[in-house]
Amino acid sequence: QVWLVESGGGLVQAGASLRLSCAASGDTFAEYVMAWFRQAPGKEREFVGVISWSGNNILYADSVKGRFTISRDNAKNTMYLQMNSLKPEDSAVYYCTAGRSWYGRTSDRSGRYDYWGQGTQVTVSS
Questions:
Q1: Which whole-number Å values give the CA distances from 44 to 39, 93, 100, in the listed order?
Q2: Is the Cβ–Cβ distance between 106 and 32 less than 8 Å?
Q3: What DSSP letter does each residue of 40-107 carry, written as one string?
Q4: Which of 16, 61, 107, 117 sits CB 3.0–4.6 Å from 50 for a disulfide?
Q5: Contact by Cβ (8 Å): 72, 32
Q6: Which among 30, 42, 38 is positioned nearest to 61, based on CA atoms?
Q7: Own/partner pairs for 30-33, CB < 8 Å, 24+ apart?
Q8: Per-residue pLDDT tens for 14-47?
Q9: Rounded to 5 degrees, what angle do the CA atoms 58, 63, 69 make?
């Protein structure tokens, strides 16, 4: 069992940056593949990116590639999402999630993950 708490969301203008954090507690953090998803009002939950146990492998959704960076610090039991050049369409509730296995290109399926945080709101104004 792992508990996840996101933080760092807020209201920013287009072009700004934000860094989200996901703090984990419970089971050994390094044993989990970690990912970010987001969900805008009226839309399905959308994959943002995934990072492997040690951080050696990272995959991003095309919509954020080149603007967002996922990292993790296993010593601090924390994952991060650095978001640069934010756009209004990035507005959503951002969730971090944990799973036991690495699925490569099919990591974008929410059912791959076992534990979810409560989410943090990111709003980007134009």
A1: 6, 11, 23
A2: no
A3: -TTS--EEEEEE-SSSS-EEE-TTTTTTEEEEEETTTTEEEEEE-S--GGG-EEEEEEEESS--GGGT
A4: 107
A5: no
A6: 38
A7: 30/54, 30/74, 31/100, 32/2, 32/98, 32/99, 32/100, 32/115, 33/98, 33/99, 33/100, 33/101, 33/102, 33/107
A8: 999 999 999 999 999 999 999 999 999 999 999 9
A9: 35
